[in-house]
Design goal:
Blueprint: H1 2-6, H2 9-30, E1 33-42, E2 44-46, H3 49-52, E3 56-60, E4 66-74, H4 75-78, E5 86-91, E6 100-107, H5 110-114, E7 116-121, E8 125-145, E9 152-154, E10 158-159, E11 163-169, H6 170-173, E12 178-184, E13 192-197, E14 199-201, E15 214-215, E16 219-224, E17 226-236, E18 246-255, E19 258-263, H7 265-268, E20 273-276, E21 290-295, E22 304-306, E23 314-323, E24 325-331, E25 337-339, E26 345-349, E27 355-361, H8 363-367, E28 377-379, E29 393-399, E30 407-409, E31 413-421, H9 422-432
Parallel strand pairs: 2-5, 8-12, 17-20, 25-28
Antiparallel strand pairs: 1-4, 3-8, 4-7, 5-6, 6-8, 8-11, 9-17, 10-16, 11-15, 12-14, 13-16, 17-19, 18-23, 19-22, 21-23, 24-27, 26-31, 27-30, 29-31
């Protein structure tokens, strides 16, 4: 047996080699090697904390976050290989000063991995842009566009949240200046309630669209009340007593005299005007013009507001106070009307008496006074005695005047009047004849 095994040993080894070769050639025809290509395979960044712990942020550049993977293996192996078996990673702890990270490709199945000829990515590294991280708080502004019908305005806009935060690379965050939501008010006559998308704007009002910027919220609920408007007058009164020697000259005002109010139409129907109480314009002890600023919002009915944003609700009340002046008029006797002269009597003022009337009041009112306008007169009937009889001769009688309510007579004016009984004189003359 030994001789048989060792006889022609070289030929036998060669036969075994050729048999194996034939087997391999035959196998290659039945299960040939080939390539399988997987496109747009994402690169998984691992150990990103090595960047973010330094308060930095990163952005993948030049589409290096996706690779094309080529796997060479026997057809039978590739038939069992899927995209889910590919593991493509870049370890951020290996980040270079140039911002590159080597890409590592493997399979998550050891059996498959041991039976592949090669596996290769079309890129060697991921390119990152690493910056300081930044964040900012922004007020959410509501921008109303369009035009409401005439007679309507918008009330105080309410947002579900009026603040938001953004974060991301410093260069991107620094571009943002405002956060806005837009609400169209074209031909709207009732309240608007919508969920609006938040837009980020730069200093020029252009929208900032950058995927590296993260928003704390993307949308916000906005409510815009739509109100009816009505113009109403403001009324007021004056209280108090001015200082001694002074008086209100009758000139007072409120500025503005009318205001535009807003509310539901049913609420405005009940409002005819805005009344400011007298306590707001108190002229006690005033010796000059009194001016008061009043916020009329406190006197608006419930559910009624001021329309617009320009007028802040403050009106100015003014009451003019002037010093009281004095004026003296000479009253000629011949302009005094003598009234109620009894029958059979003559009555006339004694001439040369220099009658003087002292008046007080505001200068403008005093300037209007003339002797004729105040109708000087006297009433003879006041000279009857307790028996209703008149007495002949000179007597003192009061001179009366018709004065406006704005002018005051300082003291009584009296004059001498002469009464003569006509019948007695006639009788005496007849007796003597």
């Amino acid at each position: 047996m030994k001789n048989k095994l060792l006889h022609n040993l070289g030929l036998k080894i060669m036969a075994i080699f050729f048999a194996a070769l034939v087997w391999m050639i035959a196998g290659s025809f039945n299960d040939p090697l080939r390539d399988s290509v997987f496109y747009n395979v994402p690169v998984q960044l691992v150990n990103t904390g090595s960047i973010t712990r330094q308060e930095k942020t990163y952005e993948v550049l030049n589409n290096t976050g996706y690779v094309r993977i080529t796997v060479m293996a026997a057809s039978s192996v590739l038939d069992g290989l899927t995209r889910d078996n590919l593991v493509v990673r870049a370890d951020c702890s290996r980040l270079t000063e140039e911002g590159t990270i080597p890409i590592e490709v493997s399979l998550n199945d050891s059996v498959l991995e041991n039976n592949i000829k090669s596996i290769q990515a079309d890129k060697e590294y991921v390119q990152l842009n690493v910056e300081n991280a930044s964040s900012r708080q922004l007020t959410i502004n509501v921008v109303k566009t369009g035009t409401l019908p005439e007679g309507y305005i918008t009330g105080r806009t309410v947002t579900e949240s009026n603040m938001m935060s953004i974060s991301g690379p410093e260069s991107a965050v620094e571009q943002v200046r405002r956060a806005v939501v837009e609400v169209s008010m074209d031909n709207v006559t009732s309240d608007v309630e919508i969920v609006a998308q938040i837009r980020l704007l730069d200093a020029d009002g252009a929208e900032v669209v950058d995927s590296s910027i993260r928003k704390s919220i993307e949308n916000v609920k906005v409510t815009v009340p739509v109100l009816y408007t009505k113009e109403v007058a403001i009324s007021y009164e004056i209280s108090g007593t001015v200082a001694e020697g002074y008086a209100l000259n009758g000139v007072s005002s409120v500025e503005p005299a009318t205001v535009l109010i807003a509310g539901k139409e049913s609420d405005l129907e009940r409002v005819e005007g805005i009344e400011i109480p007298a306590s707001e314009l108190d002229v006690t002890d005033a010796s000059g013009t009194v001016t008061r600023t009043v916020d009329i919002r406190r006197y608006l009915p419930d559910d009624v507001t001021l329309a617009g944003t320009v007028f802040d609700g403050r009106v100015t009340l003014t009451a003019e106070v002037e010093a009281i002046r004095r004026r003296t008029l000479n009253i000629p006797e011949d302009v005094v009307q003598v009234l109620n002269i009894p029958d059979g009597w003559l009555a006339e003022l004694v001439s040369g008496q220099n009658l003087r009337l002292s008046l007080s009041g505001l200068q403008a009112d005093l300037n209007k006074i003339t002797v004729e306008s105040i109708t000087p007169h006297t009433n003879v009937a006041t000279l009857r005695d307790e028996n209703g009889e008149f007495t002949q001769g000179e007597q003192q009688i009061e001179i009366l005047f018709v004065l406006p309510g704005t002018v005051r007579q300082e003291e009584r004016v009296t004059a001498s009047i002469r009464l003569v009984q006509i019948q007695e004189n006639v009788s005496s003359a007849g007796a003597e004849g």
